[in-house]
Structure formats: C-alpha cells, structure tokens
Design goal:
Catalyzes the conversion of 2 pyruvate molecules into acetolactate in the first common step of the biosynthetic pathway of the branched-amino acids such as leucine, isoleucine, and valine. With 186 residues, the protein is of the alpha+beta class. The protein is built from four helices and nine strands.
Amino acid sequence: MSALKIKKGSTSHSAYNLRPTFSDVEERHTLAVLVENEPGVLARVIGLFSGRGYNIDSLTVAEVDHTGHLSRITIVTRGTPQVIEQIKAQLGRIVSVHDVHDLTVEGHSVERELAIFKVAGSGEKRVEALRIAEIFRANVVDSTLESFVFEITGAPEKIDAFAELMRPLGLVEVARTGVAALSRGV
C-alpha cells in the first residue's frame, strides 16, 4: 500500500471542496435593487445596513415603473466578499424587494453621478477654476462677482478629481446625487 505524502505548507485541491474561498480584502460593489414603491421600503433597506454595521458610500432611489409601482435603489457599499454576499442575501429576503443585482460582478456597467460645486475666488484663482472646469466639461450654472457654481456629470472618480483640483482654488460647498448605474449590453 502506498502512502501519499503532502509537503508541509502545501494545499490540497479536491473536487469535493465545494466551499467558496473568500478574501479578507474590502471591495467596492454597486448593487441595483428593484423594490415596490411603497412607504417604509427604503427604511427597511437602510435599516438592514445600519443594523449590521454596513456602510453605504452612495445611495440613490427613484421610481422607474409608474404603472408597476417599482423603484430602483442603487447602493454603493464596501466589504469583504463574505459581507457583500451577506448583504445581497439579506436584501433578497426583504418582502418588498423584487430583484438584487451586483453590477460589480455581473459584468461591465456604466456609472454616472451629478455634482454641483460652489467655488469662491478672485483674480488668477477664478481664471484657473474656469480653465479646469472647461477641461472637465463642467458647466457654469450660476455666477456672481465672488463665486461660481459648476455642474459636472461623470464617473465618481471624475467627480472626486474635480473636487481635489477645486479645493485650493476656493471650494466652498459640494452637493452630489450619488451613483446611478446600469449594466452594459442587453
């Protein structure tokens, strides 16, 4: 009879090891949740996150089917793969939830956000703010002698980059809509 020797430190791979292996690294995920448009549904979804200590980076919600009374909640969150799987499973158990999609793992998606920035400044800083806004294709939606209000749309990373460049030029205030996202293709 022959004995199988396994070196110390090596891992055994078996077709019977059906447990998924997860990482401890936090990942950013965008979840699209289709829910009934009725009072209390958003509170239940948010309660799931707060009750378990999960953070929400971005949250948007709007009715998407008037006749079917359905709304779409887009949530950007972070967590280990185990936490993300828990979130999706727990969302799916809420009675008013029709569908949960993890756009991050289902393939390529398009993410956009709208933000408005109030930037105060004069002289060269004012000219530089206008120059940067032009590069980022931001629109001036309000102007006074002391400030501008810029409107910009794009991926969250673009919004973040614009904010970083506006800070030293007199960024006063920012309002962001949160991420709206759709999967690509059919």
